[in-house]
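Retro notes - structure team

What went well: the batch runner handled both jobs without manual restarts.
What didn't: labels got mixed up in the shared folder, which is why I'm recording both outputs here explicitly, each with its sequence directly above its C-alpha cells.

Job 1
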Amino acid sequence: MSRRQFTLDEKIGIIGRLENGEKNSVISKEFGTCSSTISTIWKNRDKLKNMFQTTSLNAKRLRTAQHKDLEEAALVWFKQQRSLNVPISGPILQTKIDQLAEKMKIENFKCSASWIQRFRQRHNIGFGKISGESSAVNTDICSNWLANVWPSLRAGYCDDEIYNADEAGLFFKLTPDKTLRFKGENCSGGKLSKDRITVLVAANMTGTDKRKLLVIGKSKSPRCFKGVSSLPVFYENNTKAWMTSAIFEKTLNYWDDELRRKKKKILLLVDNCPAHPSLQHLKFIKLVFLPANTTAVLQPMDQGVIRNIKAHYRNQLVLKMIEDIENQIESKVTVLDAIIMLDKAWRNVTSTGIANCFRHAGFCDVTTDTTQLQTDSGLINNIDEDYLQIDDDLITSEIQTDEDIVNNVIASQQVELDNDTDIDELDDEFETVPSISEARAALRTLERFYYTKYEGTDAERKALSLLETSINSNTKQSSIKDYFKKLNKN
C-alpha cells in the first residue's frame, strides 16, 4: 500500500475524527494508506495542532480584505456549510460570495480567484478531499456508544474535567396567567419573539464547576443595562436571540484561553446542531459531539438541569408578580431582571443534582443516589406543568439563510437601539442607578426583617454584614467628611 502525503489541514481533520472515536482502520481504508501512517499522525497530534494554530495566527497577519463585511458573511456561510458536512469547492464559494455581495448591495464587485486565494490564506482554508468530519450518522444505539466509543473518548480525563453544554430557550416575561394564551404559538416573529432569550448552560460531571451562564438577547445594548458596570452572566446578541456558530466559537475561544492560564484541559460534550461548528484550533478543550438524534437521552443538561433552572426562575418570577401586586405597581420584567433571576436560579441548582443528571444519561456509574434532582424536586412539583414546559421546544439555533447572515453582519457594525423592551415598559428604576443611600436604606429594612420577623441563621447574618461592608466600600470618603461637617455645623 502506498504512503501518501497529507496536508496539514488533512492531518488536523484526521486527528479530529480519531478524537471523536472513529477507528484507524476505517480512516486508513478511506484514504488508501496504511494504518501506521494514521498512527503516526495521531502520535504527533500535539505538535500538529501547534503548527495549525501558528499557521492560523500568521494567516491573520495577511493584508486585510477590502470588503470586511462581505468577508465576514462569506466566512459565516462557509463554516455553516462545513458544519453540515457540505463539500465546498472554489467555484461554489466564488459563486456564493458574488451572491452575498449582491445582497449586500456592493457595486462593481466580482469575486476573482485571487480574492478566494487571499480569503483562504487569511482563514486557513484548504480545498480538496474532505477529511475533517465524517458525514455518516452513528447508527448504534446510545448504550453501544456509551459502551464502545465513550471509554476511549474520555480516556485521560477525570470526572471533574468532563463538561456538557446545552442551550435552552426561555420566555423570560411569561407569567402563569399568560401560559394558555401563548402555548404553542410560533416564536419566529412578532410580539412573542421579543420576549425570548437563549441561555447556554454548562457544568462538569461532578457539578463542582458551574460555568457562568451565557445569555443571548436581541438587543446589543438594552436600556435596562444603563448604568450597569458588570453582569453576572456573559451576554451576546443577534436579531433572533439564537445561538450562532460565531457566538459559539467566541465563547469556546474565551474558555480555551481561560483554561490556558489555569494550565488545565477539559473534555466538552455538545450536540451536533448547526450552531456548533467543529473547532480544530482549541488547545485545552477537547470538543466531542454526541451521536445524531440521541441528545434527548445522552445530553446531561436535558436530564433535569435546564428544567430545574427554569423551575427556580419561574418561581422567582411568580414571587415578583405577587410582590408587585401587593405594592400596587404594574409588574414588568426587563432583560436585566431576567439575567439577575437566571443567575440566582443557576446558583440554586445543586452540584448533587447535576452529577445525578450525568449518571442518568449514562456517563458514569450509578452509585447510591439515582434521583435526578432530589434536592429541588419539591420546587418542580409546586409549579404548574404547562407553565414549566411552555418553552421546552423553543428553537435556539437554525441554519441561517443568506438574508440572516447579511443582516447579522450589518447589524454587528451598527449601534443598535433597544429592540427588546418597549418604550412603555421602561420604568424610572431602570433609568437611574440606585444611590448609596438607597442601597443602605434597603439593607436596614432587610436587617429589621431578619432580626424581628424571621430568625435568621448565622450564615444569613454574615451575608448581611458582608453586604454592608461592600456598600460602605463604595461610599466616597469625601461624602463622609461632608456629612460630619454638616453635623458639626448643626
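Job 2
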Amino acid sequence: MWFCEGICGTLSNILLIIAVILALHYVYLLSNRNYWINRGVFSPNSGALFGNLPGQVNGKRHIMYELDELYKKYKSSHAYIGIFNFRSPRFLVFDPEVAKDILVKYFKNFQGTELYGKIDEKSDPLLGGHMFVHIGEKWKNTRQSISPAFTNLRIKATHPIYVNVYEKMKNFIKNEGTKKNFSGFDAKDLCARFTLSVVSNSIYNVDPKVFDGSESEILARAQSFLTPSKKFMIFSILYSIYPFLTKYFKMTFTQPGSEKFFLNLMMDSMRQREASGIKNLDYLEYLIGLKHRKEIDDLGIASHGASFLIETLRCHNPGSYLARLCTDPITLNLPKEKKVHFIPGDVVYIPVQSIFKDPEYFNNPLKFSPERFAPENGGVKAFMDRGVFFPFGLGPRICIGNRFALAQGKFGIAALIRDFEVSLNPKTVEDSEIHPQAIIVGVTNCFLEFKEI
C-alpha cells in the first residue's frame, strides 16, 4: 500500500511540476502582447502560441499568404499594424511611402536584415560571409569592393556567354520536345538551368552541362544551397519564441557539403584562370584582383559567387516580404500624425508580394502586361518613386547584381520568343500553392511547349 501511495505521490508531483512549467511558459508567451499597443500601434488579436503567423509552425501555409491576408484585411484602415511571429513583435507596413522611407530615408537606422545576429561565419561560413547578413562598416566595405564587378562594361563582356548558353538551351528544347515521353518543359527548371549555366560560366568559368542530358552536380548543389537546412527551420522557430538564444546559438542555413563544394569550385576556377595567363574583362578576373589586393578572402569570394543563383520578378518575386532590423533607435513620424519609437532589435516587415499585386497600384495586377512599364507611362521609375515596385529591393541594400540579372533575363526571353512560339502545356496548374517552407518562392507547376518558328 505504501508503495502505491509513494508512486502516486511521485506522479502527482511530476504532473504538478509539468503543469507549473506549462503555465509559466504560457504566461511568458503572453507577456509581450502589449508591445505594440503600448506604442500606440494597432495590433490585431493573435494566438497565444503562434502569434499572427501560425502557418509557419503547422506547416500548412507559406508566410506570403498569411501576410497577404493581413494586408487585405487591414490595409484600407491602417497604414501599418503590429503583429507577432510567435512571441517576437513585427511591424507590418502597408503604406508604400512608409516602406520607402524605411528602406531609403532611414536606412541608417534600419540597416540589418532579419538574419543579422542569427548567422555568423563560424556557424555558416558560406552565408555568414556574405554582405546580406552584415551591417555597418563591414557591409559597406564589402559592398564597395564587389560593386565594380557589375559595371555595364563587364555586363556587356558576358554577352558571348549568353549566346553560347542559349544555343545549348535551344538544342536542348528541340531534342527534348521530340521524345516520346515528353510532357512539357517545367518553366522553373528550364529557367534555373539557363540562369545557372550563365552564372557558372560567368563566375566560375565552368560549364555545368545542364543541357547535355546528364546529371549536373553544380545544378544539384545550387538547388541544395537554396534549400534551408532542418537546423535553420528549427532555430527560426526557437528564435521567435526565445530571442535571447541568438546570443548563445547561431543558425546554419546552407546544407552540409555546400560550403566545401562552392569553395573548391571557386578556388579551382581561379587557379585555372591564373595558370592559363588569360586576361578577360569578366567577373572571375575581377574577383581574382580582389583576392590579390586582399580586399576579400577565399571564403568571401565563394560566398558571393554562390549568391548569384537568385533572380526576381513582379508577379512571382522570390522574396515574399522584405525584413529590416532596427539597428539605431529612431522615432518616425507616420501617417495621421502618429509617432512610433523603434529600438534596436525591432523588425519591420514589408509585404512585397501584396504591394506588387495591389490593384490600387497596378491595373489588372495579375496580368502579364509589360506595357505598364513603357516609357510613355513613366517607365519603371514612376512605380519605384511611389514605393510600389522594388523587385530587387530599394535603397542602399538594393540587390548588387540587379543589372546582371536583368541583362541575362532579357536576353533569354528575347531569344526564345524570336525562335519559338511558346504556349502552355495542358497540365499547367494555375494559382498553385507555394510550399509552406519555401524560402525562395516562384512559379510552380507551370509547363511550357515550344514550336520552332
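One thing worth noting from job 2: The longest helix spans residues 2-30.
We'll revisit the folder naming next retro.
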